[in-house]
Amino acid sequence: MKLKSVLKLSGVLALSVVVLAACGSKSSSSDSKELADKQVINWSETAELPSMDLSTATDTVSFNMLNNTNEGLYSIGKNSKVSNALATKTTISKDGMTYTFNLRDSKWSNGDDVTAQDFVYSWQRTVNPKTASQYGYLFSGIKNYDAISTGKMAPTTLGVKATDKHTLVVTLDKKVPYFKLLMGFPSFYPQNQKSVEKFGSKYGTQSKYMVYNGPFVLDGWTGTNLNWKLKKNNTYWDKKAVKLTEMNFQVSKDNTTSYNLYQSKKLDMTNLSAEQAKTLNMDKDYITRKQASTFYLQYNQKNKLFQNKKIRQAISLVINRKQFVDKILGDGSTVASGLVSTGLASNPKTGTDFAKESAVKMAASTDVTEAKKLWKAGLKEVGVSKASFSIMSEDTDKAKKTNEFLQNAIEDNLDGADVTLINIPFKSRLARSTSGDFDIVVTAWGADFSDPISFLDLFTSDNSQNGGKWKNSEYDALIKASKTTDASNPDKRWDDLVKAEKILMEDQGISPLYQMSQAQLLRSTVKGVIYNGAGVNYNFKGAYVTK
Amino acid sequence: MGKYLVKRIFYMLLTLFLVATITFFLMKLMPGSPYANQQKMTPEQLQIMNEQYGLNKPVWQQYLIYLLGLVKGDLGTSFQYSNQPVSYLISSRIGPSGQLGLQAIIFGLVIGIVIGAIGAINKNTWIDTSSTILSILGISIPSFVLAVLLQYYVGLKLGWLPIADWGGFSYTILPTIALGVGPLAETARFIRTEMVDVLSSDYIELAKAKGLTKFGVVFHHALRNSLIPLVTLIGPYTVALMTGSMVVENIFSIPGIGEQFVKSILTNDFPTIMGVTMLYSAGLVVVILLTDIIYGIIDPRIRLTGRRN
């Protein structure tokens, strides 16, 4: 541990020297609109690219690369706006259960045509239990998926058909209000059957064992190496819109290294650690990427203490979240006002952000006097004078700091509270969360797609991931209505979801803590990179470099 | 000698078998599944996944299946890298780690011997003191601190060598120095002590009396005899460099094996954990055997079989 601190200290020292040095240097040109001669971006990744098989990929790097080298029916633009990609026209049946897509002419990088059959093949491959896809659940709602996923029906019975080369018909067995958003996620992209069969078990394990139909092709990836390239795809139907000729990716797991590379102009982007973010947040290249990921305190309803609403509220009210994100985290993360993250979805009528519209004052504010009152009353209702409980979290530095902050806030302000901390590895934490073996757990949830339901589904009483077993029949009814009776009515559905979030927050079924952000330095000459907090993070199709 | 070798190889295989067995069962005690998206999967989905990967079978059956695969040379498929065989994962990443380890050992030993010898010859002078200070510094500064400093000053500020990445020989220099300074310092200290002893022994006096040059005495007699005990140090160095280079590999963005090991444990990537553990263990037992054999050959006082020649 000591050695680690030495390392950190030297890192910080090195950084501060660099920052001071940087103060004196001239700022580079940034607002020029003229395109640079070399349209190349050097991008930093913090982890390897493990897979390019869209049926089995699980991590963000893989999904980012898949999203930029392949294309589906729609693409997801700025603020999660859905627009046509391979689809030219979408017809939705009156009952909302059948989608018919007309596809444009486009080609795979091996010269084959992209056809409706490629979608059928890809989807059937992903839902096949033998493929063991970890994202198969996203297909839930498409006809027969649930039976196929448990092996009761054949993958060929999935509700997807190619009526001709350019027409794809998808049948649902329940309404999926966010269906279009899903079509922009790589799991729903087509796959070239010929290539999958030709490469066999090697498919998607190296850049040469793969075909592409997106804006870029992958190059130089050996499956385990730390450098690879995206090159402009000359067989792409919309190649005119692609300005970059090349993107170089460099994995550096150490943020100090990537920052050094950034300074020597070997990289155009670097992710920052919290320590770096604290010193560099005034830099002109500093930006934060808000992720659709919320950290919160989950209470175990099996524990008598936490069945009491006043106790839950009291705990939430003693946490000074602003101080926590600014002083303790300092990595650009922001206070979470509720479960659904900020910037995820906006009201179909007014455009107001979901998090803002559903905000409840009680949910994330600090009021120690009120908290003390509630705590006293709560303890009395439970019939105890003292309360000992544990807060569980992971064993990372960040999780430990979070736990210590919470312990201090609770023990300092709530009389008779005795908090023990449990910091264990992620996998152990997850196992205990799911089996309900905890008092309070600090946990996070990230959205797969930009819809509030991606978060709110979690706390219905029958959800297997609801390890704290918080239950509210009104909440359950609203979530159900949003999926059934109100599914085709965007406004009503929105209201249901807003109400549900308000119930969860007023009851403090969970206490929101913070929304995660990634601080970055991004060269000011790099423009047009689209970032979304949910689903796939990056879209480089329209990116370019100015002089 | 032949008999001895057969016996040693038998013990080696036994050791590896025990390592495989113990690691396998310890690994199975870890909570959680090897699936990255476990948090979002329902218990039913997890059940289906476990069936696909044979993880629903009793542990002893999984163990037998694993052993059978191991005998056939099949290490399984990685979970972190879907579809990627563990053997490919290891073979594609062992190269850089091995090269760095080897370079660091050679660098450490050669420079360490020179510094140690110079110190011993000039015993109790300022040269000796400086070489001792150098050794103490080398031992007390951890390799990763040195790595960060080298990267910042030599890589970024002076721009003499690449900051990070893996390309040609120039990319290996900074990490080699960072890794090699520890062994260098230990070797220097060790050689100095040994040589001071040897230099005051009778046969050196005799050699001097016979009128050999100073170089001849030091090189042919003193250094040679001081080197023998050094062989015992090579084993531990190799192990240290195999396991200790993870942080340095991360700092210099080297596609090595060290970090894979840690990551595989954190993500419950069972086949990779086993694969890398077996690799490390096999490397270690082979190095130990080689050390013993070399020792027997270069030092006549040590006989492997206890039989007179």
TrEMBL record, chain B:
This is Oligopeptide transport system permease. It comes from the Bacteria. The lineage of its organism: Bacteria, Bacillati, Bacillota, Bacilli, Lactobacillales. Its main location: membrane. It is a multi-pass membrane protein. Gene3D superfamilies: MetI-like (1.10.3720.10). The chain crosses the membrane at residues 9-27, 100-121, 133-154, 166-185, 227-252, 272-298. It holds the Pfam family BPD_transp_1_N. It is found in: Cell membrane. Belongs to the binding-protein-dependent transport system permease family. InterPro entries: BPD_transp_1_N, MetI-like, MetI-like_sf. GO terms for cellular component: plasma membrane. One of its GO terms (biological process) is transmembrane transport. Residues 94-295 form the ABC transmembrane type-1 domain.
